[in-house]
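Entry 14. Two folds queued back to back today. First construct below, sequence then structure tokens.
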Amino acid sequence: MKISRLSLSTVSALVTAAMLLLSMAIVFFGVLWVQNLYEQEYLDQLTPNARRAYDMLDRLELPKEADFLALVQQLKPLYETGEAELYLLVVKFGLAAAFLCSIIGFWLARKISRPLENLTRVVNNLREGDFSVRVPDDVQGTGEVQLLIHRFNALAEELENMERRLRFNTMAVAHELRTPLTIVQGMLQGMADKVFPRDDDRIEDLLTQVEGLSRLVNDLRTLSLAASQKLVTERNKVDIAQAAEQILQASRPLLQDAGMVLETGLKKAIIPADNQRLRQAILAVMENACRYAAEGGYLRCESGYLNKEEAFLRIIDRGPGFSQDMTGYSIDVFWRGEPSRSRASGGSGLGLSIVRAIVAAHGGRLEQENLKEGGASVTMIFPRNLPVKTGDVI
């Protein structure tokens, strides 16, 4: 039986019981063995007639009266001496058993606690900022220790991924802010030096850059709210089809400018949702499709129920689709549908990240895939039966 298969309480109980049994066995058999030696020594001290009476009684025979009286007289002092020595033997063997059990218990305790010592050392490294540390999975220990090591390794891996994403996102934010700030600074410096005229065109260019910065800040705030689980604070019954229809009607000019033909297949689907956040997610997917899939000239929006538990909203285009490493369920912050990080096509690269955050805040999931006939599909899947509560923080 391996220790790793047992709980700490079970191991402690088994070790305690084993130590008690071992102590009792040491005292019992030790005293019995020494008592036999002392018995032979005492018998050798008897006179011949007393020894003869003892042997006859041992054989269940009746000794002579004189021999029996001699045996009784000699046994009394021997009994008192033997009784004192017996007590002393119990104490000696008890101490020996306690010492031996202490050594065994110390060895077992070290064996059980060694994984915790390794874990403590690794935790100190993690505290100092080394998120790559791991505890070997082959370390022996009780069931709780094994589970603790497994959970710690998972936590360390998650922290390492978070640290890597934070480092990337910090660089990405700096990259996104640098270009518009450089443009604004250059224009303002040029107008201050009277290199550029202070006309309406220059001011409109500055407003355009400032609006872009404002959108980026709002997008970052949305992701920050999602990280702190405060993105969706109010949910009511919302028809996905109705919300999508409103966004499509408002986006007609955007679709026309992109040269995209709209096709709909909207079916009623009621979900508990934050209507404002839901509309924000739909608009983000629409803008993303118009920005990166305009060359396909086609956009389809459909909604309905997937099953008794889930509803969906799907947007399909005929664009170039997602890159191979972006299909499935993973969308990184600041990811764009184009290989370069140029802002030529506009946008902050946060669109689908925000959509995923909004859907996740509703308890749903975002799925994206490339279609066999060309183009891409983005599907937002929401649960149908979440309790509708005002002020419900997810």
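Second construct, same run, same settings:
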Amino acid sequence: MTAPFSDLPLKPALLKNLASMNYTAMTEIQAKTLPIILDGKDVIAQAKTGSGKTAAFGLGVLHKLNVDQFRIQSLILCPTRELADQVAQELRRLARAIHNIKILTLCGGMPFGPQIGSLAHGAHIIVGTPGRIEEHLRKGTLSLEHADMLVFDEADRMLDMGFQDVMDTILAQVPAERQSLLFSATYPDEIGQLSARVMQKPVMVRIESAHSEDVIEQRFYKTESFDDRLEMARRILLNDKPTNTLIFCNTKRETDDVADDLKQAGFNVLALHGDMEQRQRNETLIRFANGSASILVATDVAARGLDIDKLDVVINFHIAKDPEVHTHRIGRTGRAGARGCAYSFFAEKEGHKLLRMNLTQDPLSDPDTPPPANILSEPPFRAPMATLQIDGGKKQKVRPGDILGALTGGDHPINGQDVGKITVLDLTAYVAIKQNVAAQALKKIENGKLKGRKFRVRRIRG
């Protein structure tokens, strides 16, 4: 059991309120971050949703706040309006014993005018989405000159949704002398790059899941013919039902053949190899990374540009020629504390390749038993997301916040949690959307406006 909140040097009013809310023992993330936060240091915290992170940074913000100074002292950035609303609501609960505190939410998809009016009356804490915060800063309706605390909540999701440039714009208008807190469920390279730019000697706190070690389970199947390998791949996919799978092939021709076969079998599958033009390659990488295609069949060279933090399954359609390449392939799964599986198909004559690998098992003497054949009667599973392509990008001043606001605002708004990665290129933009609301999202973009003008939009299929 972790320590009680009463062990912390929090303001008496905050401790009294926590006791009235039956908040006694801290969660692990609170116990590990709050003493550092209260000490005024920058913190990077990696923890899953539901770990108690809102109270961790919320108590830090409220403890530091000077209510008598009626000006914006803290900015909390969230990826979606729904999360911003939840954070603001939790802050208000934690702050019940502090009188005259004003917490204001500024999110896209909501009318701009009333927000200007609220800002004119002042606030202590701003909770908002990057796009709308940047818009207020650009129009001069928001000043952050006195903000001495900056919080990034679900920073990985904000980067996923394409808010990197917007966050940089916001950071340019926040005082350099400040405390910065960054909370993230995962820790991709972009988080490290962001923290290096915005934080001063941050303390890293990681709360591991129950399976703290990165585990990759390797399985080897002896298969001789191309058709045998295809059937084995289908069995694995239907048996495991992975969210995303990367299948490595040794040639471009084989990549196309495997992808075509799986597509005919009803799977959401894409091919990626060196003969593809750049536009098609970009689109393929975007669709696989945003969850609107569940399987990518690729050559080693083509897969180098792939950046996915969590990959459920890797299938080696043929054993790699080099042991280091094999290690690199399977190392794409089992990241961030998640469990991963790597399946490798080999022929009798390829035994010498396996003998050169540093394996804990002997796949030659005891190949794994394939999944049962009766699962082949099951229908293929669908990818969770769909991708909409918008014929407008950076050159047309389209930003991720514009797209998110168009989807989550107005009539029949879409829940921000149903919006996935947003990628804005020079002349086009891609947005991932949950399958069940994809048709609604398409209509909202078709019938609405971005940057005050209409843009063509289509749902990418195939």
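Quick look at the second one. The CA atoms of residues 170 and 460 lie 33 Å apart. Confidence is low (pLDDT under 50) at residues 209-213.
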